[in-house]
C-alpha cells in the first residue's frame, strides 16, 4: 500500500506541480524502458504493462498508435496516459502506416476528457500485485509477471493481465522503496548452474521452484525456460518429466466459469504456455496418457485449447506412429559410420533390392585418403551399367544433403545422362474404332512401351550413391575403384568428377590415375 501511495503522490507532484524528487538526468526515457522490456521478454508476439509517470522521461508524449522497432523487429504500440501510469500495449507486426489510427485515438481521448484512461490507471494501481526485475544500462526495472484485475462487466467476471514498471537506483533501495528483490531467483538459475545435467537434477530444479514459490508466481516463465533445457538434460522424451513440469501451474485458477470465458480463450497466455508443452511433446513423439489429460483438466478445464489438443494427440498419435513407409529410429546413433549407413539406406529405400556395403579405403594400395565408404547399389543398377554406351561419360556429383531428423549427412551420386521418355501415343485415345483384341494377340506397335524404372529420372539416370568419412575427392576416387571391381564395364567408361553441387567444373578421371588433378 505504501508503494502505491508513493506512486500516486509522485505522479501528482510530477504531472500537476511539475516537481519530482528525481532530476531529469536520473530518469530513463520511456522509449528506452519500452525497448529493454521487449528484449527482456524475448520479443513476445504480444505484451502489455504500465510505467509510472514519475519514474521515466515521457519522450513519447502525444503518440497513441505508432511503429516501434527493436533489434530489427517492428511492434505496433498502443500508448495512452493512464494516470499515474503510462500504458503500453505491444503487438509484433510488420510496418504499416498508422497515422490515421493515431489521430483517431487522440481525438477519442480528447472527447472523453481522459476519464476512461484515468479509471484504467487507478484500476492498475489497485490490482497490480507482482513484479519482476529487468536490467537497464542506467539502473534496473521492477516488473510484475502475472497480475489479475477483476472487474464486473455485464455480470460476467473477466480476467485481464496488467503490470507496472518501477525504475530505481541504489538510493531508492536505501529508502526502502524496493524490498527483498535481492533474494529473488531468476528462472535461468534453476538450470544454468547445474554441472551434471540429468533427469534427477532436472526434477530437483522443479522441486526447488515449487518449494520456493507457494503461489507459483512466474510459472509460465519457468516452464518456458525449462522447455529449452529439456534436451540438454536428456528428458525431452520422458512423459513423467513433462507431467511434473506441467504440474508447476496452479490448479483451478485458469478454468473458465461460463461459456463466454470459454469462448474468448480464458487466460490466453497461460493456455499458450500449456500448448507449448504439448507441441514439444508432439515433436518428440511423446504421447500423453489419461493421467496427463486429467492434470490438464484440473489446470485449464474441459473447454480449453490444451485439453482439446491433448485429446487429439491421444487419438491420433497411436494411429500415425508407424504409418511412415520409411521408418527411422528416433534415437539416432552417435557414430558417423552408422549414421552414413542409415542415410544411404533411407536414400535407396525405393529399390528394395539395393545392397548397402561398407568399404575401407585401406584395402586399396593406390588410395590416399584412408577412410570408410558406405556405398549403395542395386542389381538393377549394375545391369544398367552393362548396357551403357562406352562413349558417354558418367558423372560423380555432390555433396548433397540428407537430414536424419536433426542430423545432416553428406552423400554423393554416380549418374548418367537422362534417358528420353517414350513419345505420347499418336491419334485420338478416345477413338474406339481402332480397338485391338489383346486376348487374341492383336496390338499395335505403339502400345508396347518400356516403363522407366525407379532409377531413370527426368533429369538423370542414377547408378549408385555413397557417403564417405571425409567427403574428399580422394575418397570418391576410391569409391569408383571399388565399383569398378564389381562393375568391370566401368573401367571402359569415362568418369567425370564435379567439384560443386549440383553442377560445376569437372575433372576427367583416368582408370590408372592415382589421385585427383586440380584444374
Description:
- With 519 residues, the chain is of the alpha+beta class.
- It folds into three domains: 178 residues, no CATH class; 132 residues; 143 residues, no CATH class.
- The chain has 16 helices and 16 strands.
- A seven-stranded mixed sheet has the order 10-11-14-13-12-15-16, sandwiched between helices. It has a four-stranded antiparallel sheet with strand order 1-4-3-2. A three-stranded antiparallel sheet has the order 5-6-9.
- Helix 8 runs parallel beside helix 11, helix 11 packs parallel to helix 13 and helix 12 runs antiparallel to helix 13.
- The radius of gyration is 34 Å and the shape is elongated.
- The protein starts with a helix and ends in a 10-residue tail after the last strand.
- The C terminus is likely disordered.
Give a topology summary.
Blueprint: H1 2-15, H2 30-40, E1 46-52, E2 65-70, E3 73-82, E4 85-92, H3 99-111, H4 115-127, E5 132-136, E6 139-143, E7 149-153, E8 156-160, E9 166-168, H5 170-174, H6 189-192, H7 199-212, H8 219-233, H9 239-246, H10 259-263, H11 268-283, H12 290-300, H13 305-320, H14 336-347, E10 355-360, E11 372-377, H15 379-386, E12 394-404, E13 407-416, E14 461-468, H16 473-486, E15 495-498, E16 506-509
Parallel strand pairs: 12-15
Antiparallel strand pairs: 1-4, 2-3, 3-4, 5-6, 6-9, 7-8, 10-11, 11-14, 12-13, 13-14, 15-16
Helix pairs in contact: 8-11, 11-13, 12-13
